[in-house]
UniProtKB/TrEMBL annotation:
Alphabetical list of InterPro entries matching this protein: KR_dom, NAD(P)-bd_dom_sf, Sc_DH/Rdtase_CS, SDR_fam
SUPFAM superfamilies linked: NAD(P)-binding Rossmann-fold domains
Protein family according to the UniProt entry: Belongs to the short-chain dehydrogenases/reductases (SDR) family.
Superkingdom of source: Eukaryota
Protein's UniProt keywords contain Oxidoreductase: yes
One Pfam family, short name: adh_short_C2
Protein name: Putative short chain dehydrogenase
SMART domains (UniProt xref): PKS_KR
Ketoreductase domain residues: 7-175
GO MF annotations in UniProt: oxidoreductase activity
Length: 257
């Protein structure tokens, strides 16, 4: 089983939420991490929480120009010779609107951020990944259940799941495992992924609790543990999706007496 201690990981989208929680878990177990995010202040705050084992890189992954620098950031931080053990792509964009009113510019932005950017980033970083290393993407349970308003977001996440299956087949010869973690409703304190007013969040969280069989939100650490499992411990698992959703996709919530 690959050792976490002294391993090298890059997390795309780790200045908040479940990406940051994954970085904290990896650092606590001795890994070195490169964390990325769009905003310098959040990256600085994350760096203060993570300490010397973390390197930050500010990037908007929807920019193809900015994406091109990532391999250089990895080699400058960890060295030239396939230094990466884990690539975790977690950043996304989510704007919810009815299908019949969904604006084309937001559809394009969603597909660019959630599918094209992860595709191109991982394509550019796989040459720097060790044979036997791992790739994890964050999808969403909305890629298998229809939630009103989530057409573009859910389709972009479903595209990632499909991509992972092809990548798993193509990269198996290098023993590289490729998987996704699929969260349900997770308590993320400052979800910049969501491109809508923060006032609607309590209502969205309450809705999530009301439809989840385990009757609570998930915690970012519960997703982080799944990512670390897929990244290091799941040595015979590739092309799969690990669901972390309190039963939302698989189980029916019991009726109240
Ligand atoms: N929270 C949930 O309930 C939930 C449920 C299902 C799936 N998910 C998925 O889980 C993942 C993480 O969600 P989260 O709730 O933890 O989000 P979050 O707290 O908003 O964190 C997202 C991270 O990605 C970065 N990011 C966002 N857009 C970016 C861009 N264009 N370029 C570079 N970095 C970018 C953010 O940096 P900045 O803050 O600087 O923008 C931040 O570090 C996403 O893929 C999301 O779709 C979340």
């Amino acid at each position: 089983m690959p050792e976490i201690k002294d391993s090298n990981a890059i997390i795309i989208g780790a200045s908040h939420g479940m990406g940051l929680e994954t970085a904290k878990l990896l650092v606590s177990r001795g890994a070195n991490v490169i964390i990325t995010g769009r905003h310098a202040d959040s990256l600085q705050s994350a760096k203060e929480q993570l300490g010397d084992k973390a390197t930050t890189h500010q990037i908007d992954i929807s920019s193809s120009e900015e994406r091109k620098n990532l391999p250089k950031v990895v080699t400058a931080t960890f060295g030239e010779q396939k230094p990466l053990d884990l690539i975790y792509v977690n950043a996304a964009h989510a704007r919810f609107a009815p299908f019949l009113e969904y604006p084309e510019d937001i559809l394009r932005r969603t597909i660019e951020t959630n599918f094209i950017a992860p595709f191109m980033i991982v394509q550019s970083l796989v040459p720097l990944l060790k044979d036997g290393g791992a790739i994890v993407f964050t999808t969403s349970i909305s890629n298998v259940r229809g939630f009103p308003g989530m057409s573009a977001y859910s389709a972009s996440k479903a595209a990632i799941q499909s991509l992972v299956e092809t990548m798993a087949a193509e990269l198996a010869s290098r023993r590289i495992r490729v998987n996704t973690v699929s969260p349900g409703f997770i308590r993320t304190p400052d979800p910049n992924v969501l491109d809508f007013p923060k006032e609607v969040l309590p209502g969205l969280d309450a809705y999530g609790v009301s439809i989840t069989p385990m009757e609570r939100l998930g915690e970012p650490i519960e997703v982080a543990k799944a990512v670390v499992y897929l990244g290091y411990d799941a040595t015979f698992t590739t092309g799969s999706e690990l669901v972390v959703d309190g039963g939302l996709t698989a189980a029916v919530k019991p009726a109240k007496a």
